[in-house]
């Protein structure tokens, strides 16, 4: 259905910004019209589109929408139809861009332009027949999925009173008659029906007030019918010999409560990874204040504070080591089981454990900006997302309860009118109502997503949304960036040659230009200049040319530049034939001049090391029948040298960001599904264009925001692992949906035909819910490079 949303955005400054946003949003699926108002800084998008795609594109383009993400805990949900009703109610609010309910965590996630107050949320939930639990949470926080208060107590009560009702049926198999009189059965069944079963009556009443049906309606209606029929027979003359079914109504309630109990315990396990991450949040830090070390609350720590971390303590915030050397345990953050050696100038991540050395750290990120908060936010949002296949489940759930009620009525009328046996008709109708409860349908997808993304997070693989899981299933090509992805990204300057022979002056000019860059090649130049004792030249008005290099003004007013051979050729700067570089080296060129008249000053040669795991990554993908190519802005000789060593045949070098996009589009136009792996700003456009963007967390924030999967370790072998866990998760989703549908597809006809008693139907229904959750939990057995587990 077509709609129009108005998004406030930041970062626009001129008409070119307007044009850029329109060009970026117009190609998105379902977008019919885009209007950008520079004066009000607002973007209006019309059509039937995915709001997440629009928000992601705006972030990647550099003009993020200022929207609010909120999470609320909800009480009273029992099945997929509950989730669908809540989503429909909140999607109708004017400021809400997207409403999503996760039945497994019982959370409502709202994306809105203004933010929705807890009071409004509570009112909407109440109108829909549900209740707000607790306080709203930030997206990076998750609720602790525990067993609901009272569920275990009600289960014990129901079991105590139900066992004497069911036991005689078991003893009858051994020809032992221990059947209780109807009056005693009535006395035992009543507290089960109206105390233990009260939650179903409350839920059914709330649902019916909202004009819809859910699981509670089916359970309440079915058990009440069995209980009422039994009471009627008990009150008839000759009740001692009357057929009563108190054991059926009581057993159904007990089995449903048992299923809920086991289900909640299993759901708690699906959130273990998230809770483990949340436990990494330290509460205090030792900070240098007023000439002394002081213990302060973590919320009082500021950027650029100095913090002291003793052996055995957690790193309180992201930062850079000022003093000390130690080993850090980052297993829960990156999936790296071995301790990581850290020393002066190395970055550290909040939440890591300091093992054996005292450290002094300068804080660089705090609060929501920290790496740990970003990880928790990504995992939480991914676990709250719906896979595309869930859309079918939601449609089924929306009409499921009314259809089941109709089938139950037809069962009752069919047996009553055709055989005259209304008692059997009631029992069979009860069995239809009980076995049809759609709990398993509602849990099938979110349970698998939570378990799969949780296991991935423990391995250092962060999945941004559920769509990435299904997209990973169809990947034909994986395109790797070279520097920092397949290579270490820590090149060394091994040679520099000046045209006029003044090599020290060349190094000084190059170092002056690179002082204003964070590129790995810049670090190599500055390290070499420091080692050789060369003072960088002062450079003013530095300006980075994306995919080309950097330029600036010297003290004499000339323009100096350092960049790729392609840039030099574009500027028509001649390159002397007698300049030679080491084979396979990455080459940068330095030039200076005025206006359009530039002269080459010299060349710089860099050598980078291929990562040990790069070979394994290429081999693993090849075994999975996934083709590999390399896209790089580096020179052709260097790119071919790396590709030759790794066994990559398809190499495209000297590419600008737009060239990488073109390469991705070319493969997509040939019908291939493409994954792009990169870590730099130059990779961000290609990451966004690819069917699946995979970013290294060691790279830039821009690259990570443009990707659907983030690898917390700069390990290319994790690419194959990411595709594997995605494939396994989707497989579990499909298995769960199969079992959920098969129970209803086979169970409802069998119950209607009289082949299932209400007792067996209740057990089957409870078993189906528990089955899909425990099947999803098998994903927790998965380990990186450890093979697949079903």
TrEMBL record:
SUPFAM superfamilies associated with the record: Calcium ATPase, transduction domain A, Calcium ATPase, transmembrane domain M, HAD-like, HMA, heavy metal-associated domain
Keyword Transport belongs to the record: yes
Subcellular location: Cell membrane; Endomembrane system
HMA domain segment(s): 3-66, 68-133
Primary localisation category: membrane
Alphabetized UniProt keyword annotations: ATP-binding, Cell membrane, Copper, Copper transport, Ion transport, Magnesium, Membrane, Metal-binding, Nucleotide-binding, Repeat, Translocase, Transmembrane, Transmembrane helix, Transport
Domain of life: Bacteria
Membrane topology term: Multi-pass membrane protein
Entry keyword annotation includes Coiled coil: no
Record-linked Pfam families: E1-E2_ATPase, HMA, Hydrolase
Transmembrane parts of this sequence: 154-174, 186-205, 217-236, 242-262, 396-417, 429-449, 737-753, 759-779
Membership in a protein family: Belongs to the cation transport ATPase (P-type) (TC 3.A.3) family. Type IB subfamily.
Name of the protein this chain belongs to: Heavy metal translocating P-type ATPase
Organism: Fluctibacter halophilus
